[in-house]
Task: structure prediction
Amino acid sequence: MSESNETKRPYHHGSLKKVIVDTALSMLAENNGWHFTLREVARRAEVSHAAPYKHFPDKNSLLAELALIGFDQLRAELIRALKSEGMTPIDRFFIAGKTYINFGLTNPSLYKLMFSAEASGGSSQVHLDERAMSALGVLLEVLESGQNQKVFKRGALNDQTAACWAQVHGLTMLSIDGLLYEEKVGGNAIDGALKTLMEGLKA
Amino acid sequence: MSESNETKRPYHHGSLKKVIVDTALSMLAENNGWHFTLREVARRAEVSHAAPYKHFPDKNSLLAELALIGFDQLRAELIRALKSEGMTPIDRFFIAGKTYINFGLTNPSLYKLMFSAEASGGSSQVHLDERAMSALGVLLEVLESGQNQKVFKRGALNDQTAACWAQVHGLTMLSIDGLLYEEKVGGNAIDGALKTLMEGLKA
DNA sequence: TCTTCAATGTTTACAGTGTCAACTATGTAA
DNA sequence: TTACATAGTTGACACTGTAAACATTGAAGA
Result:
């Protein structure tokens, strides 16, 4: 009965890859102050420090996988937030924007990782991935249908997409970094900024 | 005549701090793929790997100093770009925006560092620094004078500031990361996005 | 002028990291 | 049963940030 407390591991562990990803995600979630080591992941997964290398060629590959999961989650949240019927395009714009930003504020480390070079770097090319860019597709759809309903200015869909994406990305980043100081930008910067941009979208 | 080739160093070097900062800045400038080690800085400065510690308490302090220099440079470029007379507020908005973004694209590593946690972290609190936030002041002035000339919507200066800052920051970041894919956002995303926002500013 | 001292360097050491190579255990196909 | 590919461990390497101990030196006071 040496150590057979509870389920003694089969010692081919079964699902190390999933455990590693989950462990890493939860480290990211609790993360204050950005340090993330592969060895710490292995430690928490109670596995040797080199074990992750059987599932990921290197650290960046794991980070890239996490980033892709982040994009999946972001997209899912956007879709969920927008699925209810009967919203005006303007409602949908604000819902989408605030959902996006809120995702970043709720998962700051993950969000930063999603746009970090370390997640890209390798061969995985995160940002070219369908999964990464399809979150953007949701925003695009909001704009497009808003145009079709003649609530938003016609044409220049590209420009509007760029403006909206940059706006929410910028607000998210600045907010994560704690840069939207009240004395510089007021107490309600995010809503205010979205409203300002909206003025530029309306037909 | 052992090694007295040229000026033999006084061996209290005189200006190591400056040399370290300059070396680090140039490493940042040539930077491909974000790795920055103190020891490499020391190596290039031809000094022992611990020497920088006589001038900076730790790595982050050096990074913080570099970041502040970056903010200084950004502010200087904005001021220079805006100093000529006879521009309309709309001109000034586009000049400021494009100068800001161009600064980021010209110095991507430095720009990212300016907004990175690693530059902040320590006691230096970069982002609370006058020098950091005064670049934002330049943008604010553009908006304010545009309002006074009744070219921009009156009121909500805070909201406009937030919107503009988020917009240029977002565009800069996305562009540095190479995310403004033509098929997603057109070939002229930056101009288009700025134009879209401008529509929201005009009176 | 000589001495002392603080500032500024260097050396050495340590713990921690990413990664690789060599080794081991194991479930599966021949 | 045997062979092998898969998935794990161990141990090593080069590298990092950082601290402590030591060395050099220019300047201030005797």
Summary: Chain B is about 65% helix and 0% strand.
